[in-house]
Amino acid sequence: MTACIVGWAHTAFGKLENETVESLIVRVATDALIDAGIGPDDVDEIILGHFNAGFSQQDFTASLVLQADPRLRFKPATRVENACATGSAAVHQAVRAVKAGDARVVLVVGVEQMTKTPGPEIGKNLLKASYLPEDGDTPAGFAGVFGKIAHNYFQRWGDQSDALAAIAAKNHKNGVENPYAQMRKDFGYEFCRTESEKNPFVAGPLKRTDCSLVSDGAAALVVTDTATALKMKKAVAFRGQAHVQDFLPMSKRDILKFEGCTRAWGQALGQAGIQLSDLSLVETHDCFTVAELIEYEAMGLTPEGQGARAVLEGWTQKDGKLPVNPSGGLKAKGHPIGATGVSMHVLSSMQLMGTAGGIQVKDAKLAGIFNMGGAAVANYVSVLERLR
Q: What is the DSSP letter of 199?
């Protein structure tokens, strides 16, 4: 345990018309430092996660964190990007800086503003997280990419419409109690299962309730070394951590196996010295419900092709044997790309501190996080444990 999270901040996710990328960054950076009980002078390094890909005209954003306080001037600040795993890429870079001894205190911010972009451009921007020579003309954009994955999964393992609807219903139900969630409405299983005017098919077997939301939002956290964390009012330690990158073209791998996800989970759990069954909860990357379904298998919760059991038999409910996405996940909480991974770490830390309110998992001791960029290309896993 060489690095700890000692403070955090989180905006609501959704359509934030009165905000800008800059205002979101400034707000969470300021609040995270206050929450940690430190000042700007204590910060050694700044890492910003911001995907952008055309969502913001301002494409050089690392120094916007300095707008939070003049005392952040002259601190090293770097923007990182790894598609939809951008937030976790920022978190992991902070941990690397602390582990290397290059920094004692690192401020991490994740941000995205997507809703001010016209619909067709949103699709083009998101598709940049795929391999354009093969997928650049995919109808329905990135949803179309996962629509193909869902179609192929159905071809190999049978119709999984019941499981996808159960995942969507579970996550929407969980999101009702998350004050940061973009969509706080329990749609119920039948609505998610049934095609309707309000829930049409979007791509392949994926309906609207199978797809995560276009969102604005930001989250931030403060990472320190363990010795410093022990002097703070709260500390959540990184017990295990892994980043595995896979081929970008789906044609170079069996896309139904999410092998990078499997390897990342194996490495992180091994580093932590635990098994998946030791975890109290998991926040996983449900950009589309079929992703969460395959991730059940990739993390080792079920054998290959049997992911449906985990949700249909109630294992992944908030009171199940391994609660998955008690926050509501990307499905209900929203998916402002650069902020998502940071948000996962913030909400998991709140779970371990017992301060997660209505989404609290009882007696949470260990939290697992999986954040994915592209179609299982960038794979980040963290295992968190409360230190104090």
A: S
Q: Measure the CA–CA gap between 30 and 20, rounded to whole angstroms.
A: 15
Residues of the chain with pLDDT under 50: none
Residue 303 CB-density burial (10 A; 0-12 exposed, 13-18 middle, 19+ buried): exposed
pLDDT at site 2: 83
Residue 177: what pLDDT?
A: 98
Domain boundaries of the chain, sorted by first residue: 3-117+214-230
Homologous superfamily of domain range 3-117+214-230: Thiolase/Chalcone synthase (3.40.47.10)
Model pTM greater than 0.85? yes
| Cβ atoms of residues 168 and 331 within 8 Å | yes
pLDDT at 1: 59
Only one residue has tokens 């995942």, namely: 167
Which residues are within 8 A (CB) of 123 and not within 5 positions of it... i.e. 6 or more apart? Answer: 140, 141, 142
CB 9 within 8 A of CB 28: yes
- The answer to whether 109 touches 46, Cβ cutoff 8 Å, is yes
DSSP letter for 165, please. Answer: H
DSSP tag of 64 = G
CA-based torsion, 14, 20, 25, 31: positive or negative = negative
Amino acid 217 reads G
Across 157-172, b (16+ Cβ under 10 Å) vs e yields beebbebbbbbbbbbb
Here the tokens at position 193 are: 């299962």
Q: DSSP 3-state assignment of 184? A: coil
pLDDT in tens, 188-197: 999 999 999 9
pLDDT at residue 115, as a whole number: 98
